[in-house]
Amino acid sequence: KDEQAAQACLFRTLENNPVNHNTDHIARLYTVSKDIQQQLFQYGGLPRLFMKQVITFQECAILIRQPAIEVMSYLSQTDYTRPVNKYVLYGKFGVGKSIILSHILHYASLQNYLLVHIYWGARWFKDMKEVATSVLSPGCMDLPIDAGMWLKQFKIQNLKLLSQLDLKVTKDYSWNQREITSQSTPILELIDFGINRMKYACGVVDALIREIKLASTAGKCKTMVMIDGFNSFTSNHTRIFDDNKMIIPPKKVSLAIPFWDITKDDWCNGAIVLSVDEKANKERRESYLPRYLLGKEGFEHLDPFVPILVEDYNATEFDSMIEYYKDRKWIRNITPSGQRELELITNKNPLVLMDHCKFL
């Protein structure tokens, strides 16, 4: 038993609080509790293949990696009275950017950040639920159901914090002749209105983001903006068509506009952690570098930012994952030469390794 415990210590850490993670924990797995999974990832955030693995293994274990520790160390040292810092994760497809973002999101939640989280930016422009001509933003298109779902996600992720902060709306918002959200209405009421009246959900998201920026700058709350696949916002391709059957770019999608706005550095008391990914846009896929993926406009919009490269597993991380798979009985009776072969076949890429080890 002692030997087993010692072996477990090699690839696991008992420190399940990301706030306490440091360089000593790198290349070890920590377990995310069911409550946190329900709170943070109920509407998405963990990649689909990874979620299948979570269900199979009956636990959500995240590998602690250098980029996550790096971002968290920056966040702990930031002067929040200054304009927001931006951190952009980049790297090849499948190196684990989304999982690292999930780790940072968990950290931010425990540090009482208000979470403004989009788990995959491109889905609004490719897999939207419904498109309608905007009621409140002339010339734009609404995604009412997606906006309503995002509001639900925002509410679940931040419910505990919102009930403590008691944030209020700073001005009147008129939705139509009868319905109005008056000044000093609690933010939670505004969110509930958007969820119940999805026709106005995009307008509510816009108002909510504006109020969050004001509240953060006023020092009422600390905000973490996290968007996976941010370069989808700078793409020219969407599957959204207007009434004339013309393709609408993201800047004409009313749901995307507030998130473009909150990634500016005209506010403080927060942080912006983004990722750029080749799969997030259609026209730029030859390189994974931020300048290329974001394009000129997107790069200038985010500049200055801290680029953080995410790479394939190193030897220690690869060994930890293999040990974890063995522990879960996902891999059995593998010889050292078999392990070496797996290392060479997958090139230590996290996604390829997960794919090669999955159930046939």
TrEMBL record:
UniProt key word Transit peptide: yes
Record's subcellular location: Mitochondrion
Keyword annotations of the record: Mitochondrion, Ribonucleoprotein, Ribosomal protein, Transit peptide
Gene Ontology CC, one term: mitochondrial small ribosomal subunit
Predominant location category: mitochondrion
Pfam families: DAP3
Domain of life from the UniProt record: Eukaryota
Gene Ontology biological-process annotations: apoptotic process
InterPro entries named in the record: Ribosomal_mS29 (IPR019368), Ribosomal_mS29_met (IPR008092)
GO molecular function annotation: structural constituent of ribosome
Entry annotated with the keyword Transmembrane: no
Family under the similarity heading: Belongs to the mitochondrion-specific ribosomal protein mS29 family.
Record-given protein name: Small ribosomal subunit protein mS29
